[in-house]
Each structure stands twice: as structure tokens, then as C-alpha cells.
Write a structure and sequence with these properties.
Largest sheet: 2 strands, antiparallel
CATH topology: Bromodomain-like
Low-confidence stretches: none
Number of strands: 2
Number of helices: 6
Radius of gyration: 20 Å
Shape: elongated
CATH class: Mainly Alpha
CATH superfamily: DsbB-like
CATH architecture: Up-down Bundle
Strand order of the largest sheet: 1-2
Distance between the termini: 46 Å
Strand content: under 5%
Structural class: mainly alpha
Length: about 180
């Protein structure tokens, strides 16, 4: 059984992706954040600082996706493109740090609760994992989560750029 898209099928698919762009953004952002928190909370893979920084654009993308239900403006697509680009840059930098091509040391990223005495501090330090940005704690097929985020971000930048420029071309033709 072979799978091929005819020209009409491709046009319909592209039209559907354009129409459901923010639904796709919401689903992808949700899946990425849920995956990160599942790994962190259920599989004991706490994030480093750079991992946490990579999450912020996805939170913003969730907000933008929800705003798109009320606001149908091209500016939201531009902001989404910027968010994807920012997580692309952070994950690219993180990938370089993990592969030890760039030096980056921010120190211990763990935070403590209210510590009243030395014994509480000692217990906290023994129980707290030290997470470094240059160590890969989890990988899939040899790719770290930062590498996967880099690839996903690149694909989403391509999709966003295509949709953004196609909308701009339609706007300029209408004027």
C-alpha cells in the first residue's frame, strides 16, 4: 500500500493547517510541557536552568493560542513565530552546552524551602539532586531533550514562517 498526496489533497491539508494553526500550536505546546513535567515529576528527571528557560515560550504560546479564540490578528502569528525562535535559540545553546562545545556554568539550580537549622540544611542537601546544564540526564535515540526541542522548534518555525508569509502575501495582493 503506497501513500501519496495528490495536489488537491496537499492544498486541502495546507488549508486545514493554516485554519487550525493555533490549535496545532496549543496541542504541540501542551504536549511538550506535559512531557517535561511527567519526566520531572514521575520519572525523577529534574530540569536544569536552561531546561526551565525552554519552557517559558511554550507557556506564552499556550496563552497566545487561547487569545487567538478572541483575537484573529496576524500579530499573534508573529508573536508565535518569535516564541518558537526563542525556544529554538535556547535549546540550540543548551544542546551546545550539553555537547561541551560551549562552557556554561550557572551552579546548582536547586532551591530550598525554609531551612531553620544545620540539620535541616544537611537533610535538604542530601535529598536535593544537583542538576547541571552540561549533563544529559535523559535521551531518546541519542538525542537529548534539548536536541529534540531544537528539532521541533525548527519545524514549527518553518511552519509558522510559511503561514505568516503566506498571510502577508494575501494581504499585499488584496491592497
Amino acid at each position: 500500500m503506497s501513500f501519496s498526496l495528490t495536489k488537491i489533497d496537499r492544498k486541502n491539508f495546507i488549508r486545514l493547517v493554516e485554519k487550525k494553526y493555533f490549535v496545532i500550536v496549543f496541542i504541540v505546546s501542551s504536549l511538550i510541557l506535559i512531557s517535561a513535567y511527567v519526566l520531572e515529576l514521575f520519572f525523577n528527571h529534574p530540569p536544569c536552568n536552561l531546561c526551565e528557560y525552554q519552557r517559558w515560550p511554550y507557556f506564552l504560546l499556550l496563552l497566545i493560542s487561547l487569545l487567538s479564540l478572541k483575537i484573529k490578528k496576524i500579530q499573534l502569528k508573529l508573536i508565535a513565530l518569535i516564541c518558537f525562535f526563542s525556544t529554538f535559540m535556547i535549546s540550540g545553546f543548551h544542546s551546545l552546552v550539553e555537547r561541551k562545545l560551549i562552557e556554561f556554568d550557572i551552579g546548582c539550580t536547586s532551591t530550598g524551602s525554609d531551612i531553620d537549622n544545620i540539620e535541616d540544611l544537611r537533610n535538604f542537601l542530601e535529598a536535593t539532586p544537583l542538576i547541571k546544564c552540561d549533563e544529559i540526564s535523559f535521551s531518546i535515540l541519542g538525542l537529548s531533550l534539548a536536541n529534540l526541542n531544537f528539532i521541533i522548534s525548527a519545524l514549527l518555525i518553518t511552519l509558522s514562517y510559511y503561514i505568516f508569509t503566506k498571510h502577508e502575501n494575501k494581504s499585499s495582493k488584496n491592497n
